[in-house]
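DEPOSITED CHAIN:
***
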Amino acid sequence: MNTAQFTPAGTLTAEDLGRIHLIGVGGVGMSGLARLFLTRGLPVSGSELREWPSLAGLRALGGTIHMSHEASNLDGVDTVVYSSAIPQDHLEMVEARRRGLRVLHRSEALAAAMTGRRTVAVAGTHGKTTTTSMVTMVLQQAGTDPSFVIGGEISEVGSGAHHGTGEYFVVEADESDRSFLIYRPYVSIITNIEADHLNTYGDLANLEATFAEFARLTDPDGFIITCADDPGGRRLAETLRAEGRRVHTYGLSPDADLRLDDMASTAQGVRFLAEVDGHSLGEIRLPVPGRHMGLNSASAVLTAYLLGLPVEAAEAALGAFPGVRRRFERKGVADGVLVYDEYAYHPTSMTLALQTLREVAGDGRLIVVFQPYRLYRTRDLQAEIAAALGIADELVLLEVFGPGELRQPGEGSAALVEAVPLDAAHKVFVDSWEDAPVEVARRARPGDVVVTMGAPPISLMGDQLIDALTARAAGDAADPTALGAAVDPDGAASAAG
């Protein structure tokens, strides 16, 4: 069990960090933090092994990016920042300690950046990134100019971080390694609590207890928001209310403080009527489909309402919500096949995403290209993941992405594919990256929807699928090696956290 400890938020500010170096700077979380520091005018460098899409933007902001891990990368550096994906014996970690540099976990560095702001922290097993993005856009629409760091990029905006001038700081709070316990939120939003990261927590009871510990860190003058429809969220609300804490809920449940009525989801989006304590807040519309998207947006509406911001700002922001990259992201169309990318890897979020994609597919078929994320999760939740994948019409399954994990006999995707309730002709395990686009081009028909889903590296495959389908339409004999040559998923470990 992971029992890592982190230093609680204190009086350290971002400016106190001096020249900052981030190990594995290309990962979504780390690149967002780097962007925040750069837009704050701080000197930033980082190291990577692969040319991730985020790196060009960091260079444009003045960041120095080293495409190798070397001791010399730390020359002139004051603070080294690492994520939980970086091992303690990493050569730059070892060198930083040898030089006596300040070494901070990503969450500790982020806490320093939040000093002096009112933090709105979004936690939960799934839905965090989308909810954090929605809250951010609502606060922006209300004119508060919040700072934010999100575990993904808001589509069309092209950024997952920003240094704002306002009093609020919106952050996605990661529970996977307990690091969210260093934050001291003014507002805590907990979307749901389900069994996950049991390599850290051991069991659901310990996970729920830690979420309660996180919620208790909320400023007494602030408030806590949970989902009344989620059993874990409901239990948490009952526990905290019994302690006299200020808790508000949202959901379809009749006793939710913010209730969603007449919710409807189509391929064009989702809509519902929002009501608080019998008072109508009007109709909320989102241009992205999915009932789970409606629930996520309700927490943003409730946050705005409780902060005393105009509900009209929430309606306008959510009505224009462009989505988040890697969350139901439309990659393009080729040869009549629509290609999406989706980050879901937990069975609940997978099920919700695939049910929504079924709505989009209509009369077409749903083809899923899935890369499981972490061996322990794939093993412990194999039956649930297999059931979610059974929603598909066709499945192309890649090996589990688990940097640093040791695969035991019988573990991994070869076992998972057998458990998926699809006929053998409609599911296949491919043990090499370059075989996946070839399989999709062989199976997909005009009118189908294809989604790449799961671990971080799979996000790089969408363009290759489109290339393979385009080549098929042109009658070209695609070279499988060429299709896969641009990506070595095993080389992505440094950015996976």
